[in-house]
UniProtKB/TrEMBL annotation, chain A:
It comes from the Eukaryota. This is Proteasome subunit beta. It catalyses: Cleavage of peptide bonds with very broad specificity. InterPro entries: Ntn_hydrolases_N, Pept_T1A_subB, Proteasome_bsu_CS, Proteasome_sua/b, Proteasome_suB-type. Component of the proteasome complex. GO terms for biological process: proteolysis. It is found in: Cytoplasm; Nucleus. Pfam families: Proteasome. Transmembrane segments: none annotated.
TrEMBL record, chain B:
The keyword Cytoplasm applies. Transmembrane segments: none annotated. This is Proteasome subunit beta. Component of the proteasome, a multicatalytic proteinase complex which is characterized by its ability to cleave peptides with Arg, Phe, Tyr, Leu, and Glu adjacent to the leaving group at neutral or slightly basic pH. The proteasome has an ATP-dependent proteolytic activity. InterPro entries: Ntn_hydrolases_N, Proteasome_alpha, Proteasome_beta2, Proteasome_sua/b, Proteasome_suB-type. It comes from Salvia divinorum. Its main location: cytoplasm. GO terms for molecular function: hydrolase activity. The gene is PBD1. It is found in: Cytoplasm; Nucleus. The lineage of its organism: Eukaryota, Viridiplantae, Streptophyta, Embryophyta, Tracheophyta. Component of the proteasome complex.
């Protein structure tokens, strides 16, 4: 049992030479027991590390009645340093499919470009466009084959194919999920909150764009690794279209304008006698 | 942590899995199907790393189909279980698949059977099995109430008991579960046990 030794602080305690048995405990220097752990303060750091995903960004996408809405921030951070506020995190794979970037920028850009090539080859070989399910499966299989080698990709493939709007989440661990609402990145829990509470399937395009923009804004407000410009794209039956790109700082003041406060006592210049 | 469990009844086998797709503290999806239908009379419920789970169960499914194409007759459940275990074992010392599998099947001559295959490629033919944190609650529930000749209703009652126990006692209990059944009429979805419903999507 670890005990803090306070004998150095208490000079009045004398160690009796012939004390034995129970007397040792009673007459020993005052101390209290510490918990038996290897790293007492480390558990909190470990808990925080578990929650902090490695992907410093906020991206989101959701399916609604008029297609797929895709939105992302534009900040790139290296630890505490903001390396760029103008990163394009929504990647245009082809005119009717978009991919989002979270994780390693180079990994996402390269593999999305590669996916675009494979989709075009599919079109040429089969004389028809590839489905969103097919495209996302191609990417997922590639990422799965590189599993464990350090790729960091958390992406959503959004598009419109013969079956209508499609949305898949694909990551570098090889996971592939089909769904209607996803958010990826360190700011995603914040975005999920706003997105989940405001989501309805029958939103109009403007309402859905505003919901996406608002969710990204709230995530950039709370997450230090997200910021810059909130871009919003819409994927409809005739392909994708960029709807808006607003600086989140300006969005803040448009959502929460500064109220002019009444001044109780104005300080006036003392008139020069 | 994902919960999968299963049991064998009089002339059927049931596999139950939770349906949450989770990434650290985030739940991406609450209606993920983790029980793959391998062929007309086989179910494979899997839990483990997301990528491995989907890819490995699909690999087994395609190989089961390939055997049927090549040979004209379907694989037996026992053969499928041994094939699965062999693949896990071969990959184990190089590039292991982190998946735990409960394989259920119905063969005309043997009847229903259940196989427990874990990620280090051990294989056991069992009457009841469970994986994940939920197994701590499901296994003892099944041990207490299971009988070899249960009817479908009694088995579903037992499954519901297990799900209720997992929901009330596990700190990060998954909200939704999917139940699939396989019997002489084939492998099919039996039902969902949902406590969180996703926002409704209008039918296309």
């Amino acid at each position: 049992m670890m005990k803090i030794d306070f004998s150095g602080l208490d000079p009045s305690m004398l160690v009796k030479g012939n004390a034995e048995g129970l007397d040792d405990e009673i007459l020993a220097a005052p101390s209290f027991k510490l918990p038996v752990t290897v790293d007492f303060d480390g558990f909190q750091k470990a808990a925080v590390q578990m929650v902090k995903p490695a992907k410093g960004t906020t991206t989101l996408a959701f399916i609604f009645k008029d297609g797929v809405m895709v939105a992302a921030d534009s900040r790139a951070s290296m630890g505490g340093y903001i390396s760029s506020q103008s990163v394009k995190k929504i990647i245009e794979i082809n005119p009717y499919m978009l991919g989002t970037m979270a994780g390693g920028a180079a990994d996402c850009q390269f593999w999305h470009r590669n996916l675009g090539i494979k989709c075009r080859l599919h079109e040429l070989a089969n004389k028809r466009r590839i489905s969103v399910a097919g495209a996302s499966k191609l990417l997922a299989n590639i990422l799965y084959s590189y599993r464990g080698m350090g790729l960091s990709v958390g992406t959503m493939i959004a598009g419109w194919d013969e079956k209508g709007p499609g949305l898949y989440y694909v990551d570098s661990e090889g996971g592939r999920l089909k769904g209607t609402r996803f958010s990826v990145g360190s700011g995603s829990p914040y975005a999920y909150g706003v997105l989940d509470s405001g989501y309805r399937f029958d939103l109009s395009v403007e309402e859905a764009a505003e919901l996406a923009r608002r969710a990204i804004y709230h995530a950039t407000f709370r997450d230090g690794a997200s910021g810059g410009v909130a871009s919003v794209y819409h994927v409809g039956p005739s392909g994708w279209k960029k709807l808006s790109g607003d600086d989140v700082g300006e969005l803040h003041y448009s959502y929460y304008p500064v109220e002019p406060t009444t001044v109780e006592q104005e300080m006036a210049d003392v008139p020069i006698a | 942590m994902e919960s999968v469990f299963g049991l064998v009844g009089k002339d059927f086998a049931i596999v139950v899995a939770d349906s949450s797709a989770v990434h650290s503290i985030l739940v991406h999806k609450t209606n993920e199907d983790k029980i793959m239908v391998l062929d007309s009379h086989k179910l494979m419920g899997a839990s483990g790393e997301t990528g491995d789970r989907a890819q490995f169960t699909e690999y087994v499914q395609k190989n089961v189909a390939l055997y049927q194409f090549r040979n004209g007759i379907p694989l037996t459940t026992a053969a499928t279980a041994n094939f699965t275990r062999g693949e896990l074992a071969t990959a184990l010392r190089k590039n292991p698949y982190m998946v735990n599998i409960i394989l259920a099947g119905y063969d005309k001559d043997v009847g229903p059977s259940l196989y427990f295959i874990d990620y280090i490629a051990s294989l056991h033919k069992v009457d009841k099995a469970a994986f994940g944190y939920g197994s701590y609650f499901a296994l003892s529930m099944m041990d207490r109430h299971y009988r070899r000749d249960m009817s479908v209703e009694e088995a579903i009652e037992l499954v519901d008991k297990c799900i209720r126990e997992i929901r009330s006692r596990l700190v990060v209990a998954p909200p939704n579960f999917l139940i699939k059944i396989v019997d002489k009429d084939g492998a099919r979805e039996y039902g969902w046990r949902e406590s969180i419903k996703d926002a409704p999507v209008a039918a296309a």
